[in-house]
Design the sequence.
């Protein structure tokens, strides 16, 4: 069996040779709640039409990255608490990647990109359906240095590591389940410990940042906190801004 560790964590785990988008496929399959229950997972090493945040395309050479989408049906009753799901996925994937890169700095760039030594190794996109949330992640696994799409990207292979994909996904799925279960029980990210977990892993805090927001607005300032709603708190020109959505660029550590 492929991915035996991962198969043991979730009720349904399906590996496909290729697809356009694991998120799109899982949204369709999610119409069958009995066949595709909570935590059902779809994986491929060849995704040809993936999307990232802000409708960016996400394309990688075949077998150079792994795309994984998870169907979440057991959700917090408070809709506001569901806004923490992408951040929970970011923390879970950060810990799964860090497990195999112990000598590297692995952290989350708010809200949920995973960075290794400041370079992006994984992006995450959460999409809501009528009665569920699909969380997709793309991890650069065997991508060579020449295949990296931008200078600010990295991969396990570029770092000289042959990743154990099954261990990576089983750890990710287990940690995502644990974080989401605690959030669902309490409906409060602070009480559940998710807020503290995000803060402890967030590389954005303490950086001067540039945030591109809807309506072509841009904000520059210092990222100082993540509030109880999961928003990034940015101090700029004596004013405090709580950012719920935006594309963040780390400019430099505050004070440097």
Sequence:
């Amino acid at each position: 069996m492929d991915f035996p560790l991962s198969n043991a964590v979730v009720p349904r785990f399906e590996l496909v040779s290729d697809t356009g988008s694991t998120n799109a496929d899982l949204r369709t399959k999610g119409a069958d709640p009995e066949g595709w229950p909570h935590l059902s997972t779809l994986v491929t090493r060849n995704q040809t039409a993936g999307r990232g945040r802000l409708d960016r395309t996400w394309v990688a050479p075949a077998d150079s990255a792994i795309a994984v989408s998870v169907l979440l049906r057991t959700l917090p009753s408070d809709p506001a608490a569901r806004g923490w799901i992408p951040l929970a996925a970011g923390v879970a994937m950060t810990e799964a990647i860090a497990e195999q890169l112990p000598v590297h700095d692995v952290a989350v760039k708010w809200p949920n990109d995973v960075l290794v030594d400041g370079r992006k190794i994984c992006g995450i996109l959460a999409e809501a359906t009528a009665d569920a949330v699909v969380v997709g992640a793309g991890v650069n696994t065997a991508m060579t240095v020449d295949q990296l799409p931008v200078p600010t990207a990295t991969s396990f292979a570029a770092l000289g590591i042959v990743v154990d994909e099954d261990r990576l996904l089983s750890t990710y799925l287990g940690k995502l389940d644990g974080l989401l279960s605690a959030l669902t029980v309490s409906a409060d990210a602070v009480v559940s410990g998710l807020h503290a977990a995000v803060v402890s892993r967030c590389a954005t805090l303490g950086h001067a940042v540039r945030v591109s927001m809807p309506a072509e607005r841009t904000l520059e300032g210092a990222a100082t906190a993540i509030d109880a709603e999961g928003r990034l708190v940015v101090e700029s020109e004596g004013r405090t801004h709580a950012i719920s959505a935006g594309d963040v660029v780390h400019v430099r550590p505050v004070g440097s």
Observations:
- The domain at 205-253 is CATH 2.30.30.100 (SH3 type barrels.).
- The chain has a mean pLDDT of 93.
- The chain has two domains: 4-200, 205-253.
- The first helix runs from residue 4 to 9.
